């Protein structure tokens, strides 16, 4: 049943997979691993509160379970419980040492206005996945939050030069350039498939973000990507 549930979950039918994991728990002894799988399926199905309960149950069975800590922290991020998320992700990231775990910890730090801590977490994520454009973009945004515009721009230029760059990455390039007060380059940088009207709209939005005085609110407005 677990193998079938995993296969169904991978195919994207997360609600059915969650029901099968629940059935598997009824048929066996409590297992932290199954509760973690259940939590992930519930979270993917959009049921964050139920996912949180599953991850918490896994931790009652194994308080140091890093996958459960990652799942709980991720769920807390989605629910806006950022301080709790940071606490749990801080424990999970060094144990798992994955791009996903470090990226989510970086997001939590950024949303708490902890720019240098966010840079550290995202730097570790970049070390693990040096060509991933989302990870590089997150690190660039963290540098932008702390006023390190030169490094932020250099990172975004690496992203924009990548064949993996997508429209969202070029939007963040404009954001970083505007926050660095380089409006001329933001208006003239070569960006594929972006109409002038959209570029101007993005510049104006970035200017509004730059006017937000509170670093926490500015980080929320910037929007950082949570690694899949």
Short description:
The protein contains 14 helices and no strands. With 228 residues, it is mainly α.
Please describe the topology of this protein.
Layout: H1 2-10, H2 14-27, H3 32-44, H4 48-61, H5 66-79, H6 82-96, H7 99-111, H8 115-128, H9 133-145, H10 149-161, H11 167-179, H12 183-188, H13 196-210, H14 215-222
Strand content: under 5%
The rounded Rg comes to 19 Å
The backbone outline, from C-alpha atoms, is elongated
Q: Give the helix level as a range of percent.
A: over 70%
The helix/strand order is HHHHHHHHHHHHHH
Distance from first to last alpha carbon = 25 Å
Describe the structure.
With 228 residues, this protein is mostly helical. Helices cover 76% and strands 0% of the residues. It has 14 helices and no strands. The protein has helices spanning 2-10, 14-27, 32-44, 48-61, 66-79, 82-96, 99-111, 115-128, 133-145, 149-161, 167-179, 183-188, 196-210, 215-222. α5 (66-79) packs antiparallel against α6. It is elongated and about 65 Å long. The two termini are 25 Å apart.
């Amino acid at each position: 049943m677990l193998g079938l549930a995993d296969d169904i979950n991978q195919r994207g039918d997360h609600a059915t997979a969650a029901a099968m994991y629940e059935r598997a728990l009824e048929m066996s002894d409590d297992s932290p691993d199954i509760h973690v799988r259940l939590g992930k399926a519930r979270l993917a199905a959009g049921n964050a509160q139920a996912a949180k309960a599953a991850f918490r149950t896994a931790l009652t069975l194994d308080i140091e379970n890093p996958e459960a800590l990652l799942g709980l922290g991720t769920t807390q991020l989605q629910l806006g419980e950022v301080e709790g998320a940071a606490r749990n992700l801080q424990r999970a990231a060094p144990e798992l040492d994955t791009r996903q775990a470090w990226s989510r910890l970086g997001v939590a730090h950024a949303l708490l206005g902890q720019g240098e801590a966010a840079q550290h977490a995202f730097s570790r994520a970049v070390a693990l996945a040096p060509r991933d454009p989302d990870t590089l973009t997150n690190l660039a945004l963290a540098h932008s939050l702390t006023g390190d515009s030169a490094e932020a721009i250099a990172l975004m230029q690496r992203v924009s030069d990548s064949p993996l760059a997508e429209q969202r990455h070029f939007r963040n390039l404009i954001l970083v350039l505007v926050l660095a007060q380089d409006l001329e380059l933001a208006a003239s940088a070569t960006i594929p498939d972006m109409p002038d009207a959209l570029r101007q709209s993005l510049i104006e939005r970035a200017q509004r973000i730059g006017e937000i005085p509170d670093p926490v609110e500015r980080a929320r407005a910037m929007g950082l990507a949570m690694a899949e």
